[in-house]
Amino acid sequence: MHRSVRTAWSNGGRVHAILWTMHRPGRPIRLRGVIACTLAFAVAACSRPPPNGDARVSGLMLDSQLSEISGLAVSNRHDDTLWMHDDGGNPPRLFAVDRDGGRVATFRIEGVPKTDWEDIAAFRSKGRDWLMLADTGDNGGLRRTLQLHVVEEPATLENARLKPAWSIVFRWPDGPRDCEAVAVDERRGEVLLISKRRQPPELFRLPLTPQVDPPAVAERIARLRMPPALAPQSGTDERAPLSAQVTAASISPNGQRLAVLTYRYLLIYAKQPDEDWARAVARPPRILTLPWLPQAEAMGWDRDGRHVFATGEFVPAPLYRIDVDADADERR
Hints:
Shape: globular
CATH topology: Neuraminidase
Largest sheet: 5 strands, antiparallel
CATH superfamily: TolB, C-terminal domain
CATH class: Mainly Beta
Strand content: 35-45%
Order of helices and strands: EHHEEEEEEEEEEEEEEEEEEHEEEEH
Helix content: 10-25%
Number of helices: 4
Radius of gyration: 19 Å
Number of domains: 1
């Protein structure tokens, strides 16, 4: 289904309830489920004003194996392929998914634990294509160390087993925090990490090099400038609104824009070639209201550097391709 849609969040939990009723884990989705899903999207579209930006439904996530998706990145090696992984509580696995939302292959990741995988980043280094799996979730604030695992993109999209080429074990400088947003700046050779619940969100960096023992220490370099509408009333985690909680991050192919996903908004921070990210995120971002998604937690730039893909954590869910420059074109 490739058509323009302008949808938005549902009020209350009505649409999510419809989706949960029509699809329970372990049950196949039949035609009536697809129809129900379409109706649910229509209900959502009528419940709020449309988002800014041009959001097109690239596909529908219907496969029960793709529930709890928490990370998304566009493949640099395979055309029309997205890489995704699911949340903690599931096996350590990586999915190759087409742009229609269909699962193409499943890869088992061997030799590493899976505590709470929360994001994935695709990058190139030394002429090879890599994927970073971020085991950085910490809802309870209990983890002393966290892990980033790097695997090479497989040459063929067939079910197989993969082993990480290297890992980065790290800790925060001043105690635990939850983190669901990780991006790789391949030009600067560093990993960016953004805290989820602390407001304003904190930006950290790590070297893009193997580190296991002793753990590396993430360096805090900035706090994100958030739009006034997202500013919490206080700095406590408990009072930070859901709309300001960061759930994914991705750096554009040209290395000049950082896309940051929250449960309700897409924030675009731009930097000049001679700037670092600390200066870029200190300026107000461009803000786009997301189309309706059931718990938006997965997002990544397309290869063209103009669009991002985004989807939600529960199936069924739309897979959107969002033109982040659409409104800018209209103003010119």
